[in-house]
Write a structure and sequence with these properties.
283 residues, alpha+beta, Glutaredoxin, 2 domains, globular, binds glutathione, GST N-terminal domain-containing protein, Glutathione_S-Trfase_N, glutathione transferase activity, signal
Length: 283
């Protein structure tokens, strides 16, 4: 519903200025959007405050009911689980299969069609980085005096994820937002060329720039002696790179020239709540 509203607004405005094709393509598009998502809730309840677009999530999360839904893997969900647990926010840790993601997507239950999803007092919210900041703001992991630096680090890691994306899926466009089908398979030659460039040029360069710009030998974490959301995002990504589980084919030596980034991973791993979480979740 909240995804489609701006789209409909856009289509209507096109039709008012006399362009008919967007209206036709709108009709075509609607078959991809689950029925539940197509029916704006304002039609049944004009005053509803439960729509995510209207809802102001609470600023104090100590009394809210939280449920985090993700796959049975680390991926984009683990930094959220860790940040919630480290911050002492109780949450239900729901882990579902790809088939269940597909079912919920077709039912219109996932705001952006994917996981992770964080339900806050029964209202579903998407997009892992938005969720991480929401958690960080309520647990001291996103201090305002470091906001610009933390956001820049998050974006720098997002750039790396974008580069890894085709190799994660073995498909250039990843998964279809309609039904999760893999789109545009990479050839073996493309796979080996991209891996070669990732290992020799793209990742070393990006990681060494992050090391040089955002870390210092005297700091335990990116922003000094206390961890932030940037350290939690990096911990999951960086430990996966070192273990060879983050992206198949990426060298486990990729951090050899980045001692500060390596130390941050070790320091997050030593945080008592992280130790406790990892002991309880060895997978
Ligand atoms: N930009 C989104 C990306 C979410 C995403 O890629 N989710 C994947 C798992 S990491 C997913 O739901 N895959 C299953 C599917 O699309 O069917 C975010 O950061 O939350």
């Amino acid at each position: 519903m909240f995804v489609v509203a701006p789209l409909y607004t856009c289509l209507f405005s096109f039709s008012f200025v006399g362009l008919s094709s967007p209206v036709r393509s709108g009709i075509g598009l609607s078959k991809f959007i689950p029925r539940r998502v197509q029916q704006p809730r304002w039609k049944s309840s004009l005053l509803s405050l439960r729509r995510p677009t209207d809802m102001q999530p609470p600023t104090d999360a100590s009394n809210v009911k939280l449920k985090l839904t993700y796959l049975q893997m680390k991926g984009f969900g683990e930094m959220l689980r860790l940040a919630l647990f480290h911050g002492g926010l109780e949450f239900e840790d729901e882990r579902i299969s790809y088939e269940e993601v597909q079912r919920r997507r077709s039912e219109g239950l996932l705001p952006c069609g994917q996981v992770p999803v964080l339900e806050i007092d029964g209202v579903a919210h998407s997009q892992s980085m938005a969720l991480l900041r929401w958690i960080g703001m309520r647990t001291g992991l996103f201090p305002v005096e470091h906001q610009l630096k933390i956001d820049a680090i998050h974006e720098a890691f997002a750039d790396i994820n974008k580069n890894l994306f085709p190799n994660w899926y073995g498909h250039i466009l990843g998964r279809s937002p309609v039904d999760g089908a893999l789109l545009v398979p990479m050839t073996d030659d493309q796979k080996s060329q991209t891996l070669e460039l990732l290992n020799t040029v793209v990742l070393p360069c990006r990681l060494q720039r992050i090391e040089a710009t955002y870390t210092s030998a005297g700091n335990d974490f990116f922003c000094g002696s206390a961890p932030t959301t940037a350290d939690f995002q990096w911990y999951v990504m960086g430990s996966g790179l070192v273990e060879g589980t983050y992206c198949e084919g990426v060298s486990t030596q990729i951090l050899d020239q980045c001692p500060n980034l390596r130390r941050i991973i070790e320091n997050v791993a030593k945080l008592p709540r992280v130790v406790e979480w990892n002991a309880a979740h060895p997978e």
